[in-house]
Amino acid sequence: MASDTITIGTRGSQLALWQANWVKETIETKHPGLDVVLSIIKTRGDKILDVPLAKVGGKGLFVKEIEEALLDGRIDLAVHSMKDMPAVIPDGLCIGAIPRREEPRDVLISRDGRPLDRLPQGARIGTSSLRRGAQLLHARPDLTIVPLRGNLDTRLKKLDTEGLDAIVLAAAGVYRLGLADRITQLLDVSLMLPAVGQGALCIETRREDPRVTPVVARLDHGPTHRVVLGERAFLNRLEGGCQVPIAGHGRLDDGGLTITGLVCDLDGSQQINATRSGPPDESERLGLELAEALLARGAGEILERLNAYATD
Q1: pTM here?
Q2: Catalytic pick from 46, 84, 165, 209?
């Protein structure tokens, strides 16, 4: 490709900058004549740090302003954490590429090195996620869940300063920032099902952009892309956001795709899950079937109740 400049829009957190710089370096390696620059954009989610995500709008909080910059041409592509992406993408934009996924699971980081089952009765665990809080309470109803906002570095500091026994974070961010030595426990999916898209990056572009589309396409990892589209079809059917505890995780195994989904009450008392398996190239159909299976088991009533609660 001829010498040119492409501008990446990104949030300014340490993790977001790591992700955007990884995309920048990968593009420049694959296209030596291309100059890639970053444009840091502050989102609503970055500005409101003293309120739980579920109370300030849920999904879209960390992408809306970046998508506006993409639509009006101030940037050429955007790099997001896929789990921050709303189920519906604005007209004119698309997912241009999903690179190879990092570890999708969650991790527990405890103050004294104890795993979840050995934390003291009534232990205080910090998390910004209703999904994590609900699953923790399902496993251990005695726990006290403490709302925890801020970037990864801030949350690690709050483990020591806010009287917490442990915090739960996405493994991918911990690994990407070189902090794996802080991990106490990698939480199995049977205990803590991840968020839809967790561990994957979303490279968002304008639809059919003749200059950027072919550049970004070279970063796509087909197997990851298929799995994540299945997870997102599941989320879209349930119309899920951060206001409700929804989890969805797909994995490729022996040439097939298995997607597991979960809807949980806030206090963990009621948890509905299901699994669907089939060909990877039918991932979106599998995601829809999985959502329908959960709805048939009563997930709709939980979602309706929680959505009503979120808008009170």
Answers
A1: 0.91
A2: 84
